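User: I need a structural model of DUF3307 domain-containing protein from Maribacter litopenaei for a docking pre-check later this week. Nothing fancy, just the predicted structure tokens so I can convert them on my end. Input:
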Amino acid sequence: MMQLFAKLVLAHLLGDFMLQPTKWVVHKEANKAASRYLYLHALIHFGLYMIMLWDIQKWWIASILAISHLFIDMAKLYVNPLFKNKSIPFFLDQLLHLLVIYVCMYYQNLYEHTMALFIRLDWPLVLAIVFVTTPSAIIMGKFLEGMSNQINTDHKSLPNAGKYIGIIERLFVLTFIIIGRWEAIGLLITAKSVFRFNDLKESNSRKLTEYILIGTLVSFGLAIVTGLLYVNWN
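Assistant: Understood. Predicted structure tokens for DUF3307 domain-containing protein:
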């Protein structure tokens, strides 16, 4: 059953990302339910699902998935203008598609299968992953708050770029510790230092250099401690 679920997800990815030209997306956003590409898109999904199922008797599964895909996409076209952040409806759209596939695959024992997945979750790992994301970013913000007020930045940067960079680097560090590749952490620190070199060179500010160094060490330190706690916990 898991293999079939993977095949249907593959069909979804092929249909949504590889067999949907940008021209179709633009046309759908402009014409919404009146766009012929909306229905062609759903028809392509039906064909892909049938190929992956490879069983004419399961046509009803492909039909449910294709029709649900049509209505989910249609709903997204109408609610999309309501969101300032366009990534929100995109991810909600993808989540709903995957949820429908999951329900269609495990409808006979949906509750039991879902509970089994829930019970088998590695909760210490979930805790570690969650901690190194936003909670660690907030902790770092509080820790460095007094120092950040002394830093004068005369260059523009993307909103929250530093926060997201920190989250991604901590997730990498956590992953490297769990799989036992400590040397990769050294490579990550080196790569970050190289990317930061020009900024520090141009700013010629000792305070900024010290602030970035402290922030980097705290960020890596939180991830390393979290990784070690998880590894020793298990």
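Before docking, keep this in mind: Residues 2-120 form one domain.
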